[in-house]
Write a structure and sequence with these properties.
Elements (H helix, E strand, L loop, with lengths): L1 H27 L1 H11 L4 H49 L5 H15 L2 H12 L5 H8 L1 H20 L2 H22 L12 H8 L2 H31 L4 H13 L4 H12 L1 H21 L3 H15 L2 H9 L8 H30 L2 H19 L21
Helix pairs in contact: 1-3, 1-5, 1-7, 1-8, 2-3, 2-7, 2-10, 2-11, 3-4, 3-5, 3-8, 3-16, 5-16, 6-12, 6-15, 7-11, 10-11, 10-13, 10-15, 10-16, 10-17, 11-14, 12-13, 12-15, 13-14, 13-15, 13-17, 16-17
């Protein structure tokens, strides 16, 4: 019986991690494609950065509404809806011939993809025992790290053998198939789901620490997704690489970060989540500044490798702390309130800011300004305490995730 329970946990985690991988890759695939899209549609850097603002805006709206949708159709069906709808939007984007249609498609992509995360995290929190929650989150966080590597590899293959439109079509069909597979093999859930209400929201948003967590998530998302989104343009415009070379460069740079969430999850359970969150932000901001200041490719490659290695370490502990905010039967609500704001700021607004600075100076200067902001947030994090977020003596180094 115990073996069955372990098998159920690992199987459920693997399935959700696979879906999260497809969900995440569907959004970041546009980063290595951005130099091609910029040339085809005659965009400047700020307009290119606005692509991620559109995805983030859809993501913002979708996550905020996900609680009502999961209440109506439960978490499993919400995950299914998100996966199939995201695949469908990618297929539709492959037929868009005008910039206006592409922009509407990117907004719709964010709307479809954003439904997954709250239901996925709640599913994990119910699947994994509390003392191993950070490690469960770390397994789930392998998905975006593999997505960071897979996106430029896929983009390189697409640009070499097909067009970007054909690539989006095939990826969309893959997502639709994965959603149908999930519907067929995932266990049916009958867990009680309570709809979010304004009293619950007010209880959470009235906490100052919730807004601090949101700030930290905004900076962490910028250090990971925001920098990644603009890195191909930096490599092409500032370092004079071709789009294909930038894609390969981007993929190689993320390989070293693949397993870091597992290390970070263990460290968070062992030493406490606040320390890991603060150190991850501090080092990510420092390496972002050095990346922007680098003048030669060897130094650029060094900091492109180091920066994501530390930035991804924030998320296992960050999600463990975030998922513990709010009433026990509404733990997904804090995620639904924090992540859309953080993603809109860190994954949408800050790439536009980096692009705008790039139009007037250089994207490297934009990286430097962003890195300084991340380090400022890291300094603030060391002065914040989270309830029950410390190792408890005598509990074998396992942190409470409250």
């Amino acid at each position: 019986m115990k073996d069955r329970s372990v098998l159920r946990i690992y199987g459920g985690l693997s399935l959700l991690t696979g879906l999260f991988f497809l969900n995440f890759t569907s959004r970041v695939i546009f980063s290595p494609l951005l130099p091609v899209l910029e040339g085809e549609f005659h965009l400047d850097h700020a307009q290119s950065g606005s692509f991620f603002l559109l995805i983030s805006a859809g993501y913002f709206i979708s996550i905020l509404s996900s609680g009502w949708i999961s209440f109506r159709i439960n978490h499993k069906k919400t995950i299914l809806l998100s996966t199939v709808a995201t695949g469908t939007v990618l297929c539709m984007l492959s037929f868009c011939s005008s910039l206006w249609l592409v922009r509407m498609g990117l907004l719709s992509l964010g709307l479809a993809a954003g439904l997954y995360l709250p239901s996925g995290l709640v599913s994990i929190s119910r699947l994994v025992p509390p003392s191993y929650l950070a490690r469960g989150m770390a397994v789930h966080e392998l998905a975006p790290n593999f997505g960071f590597v897979a996106a430029p590899v896929l983009a390189d293959m697409v640009l070499r053998y097909w067009t970007w439109r054909q690539g989006l079509m095939w990826f969309g069909l893959l997502m639709i198939g994965a959603g149908l597979l999930y519907a067929a093999i995932a266990a049916e859930t009958n867990e009680p789901t309570t709809p979010p209400n304004f009293a619950d929201m007010q209880e959470i948003v009235s906490r100052g620490k919730f807004w601090l967590i949101t700030l930290f998530f905004s900076l962490a998302i910028c250090s990971s997704i925001g920098i990644y989104a603009m890195l191909p343009l930096y490599l092409v415009s500032d370092q004079n690489l071709s789009a294909e070379q930038a894609s390969r460069f981007l993929a190689y740079s993320r390989i070293a970060a693949l397993m870091m969430p597992l290390v970070a999850g263990w460290l968070g359970d062992r030493f406490g989540h606040k320390a890991i969150m603060g150190m991850a932000l501090l080092l990510a901001g420092f390496f972002t500044i050095l990346l922007g200041l680098s003048a030669t490719l060897p130094w650029v490659f060094t900091f492109v490798v180091l920066q994501p290695m530390v930035s991804v370490c924030f998320f296992p502990s960050g999600f463990a702390v975030l998922s513990a905010i709010g009433p026990d039967d509404r733990k997904g609500l804090a995620v639904s309130l924090c992540i859309p704001v953080a993603f809109l700021a860190g994954g949408g607004l800050l790439p536009v800011l980096i692009g705008s600075i790039g139009d007037f100076a250089s994207i490297g200067v934009g990286f430097g300004v962003t890195g300084a902001a991340i380090m400022g947030g890291a300094a603030l994090s060391f002065f914040v305490s989270f309830e029950k977020d410390a190792r408890v003596p005598g509990e074998k180094g396992v942190a409470n995730n409250g």
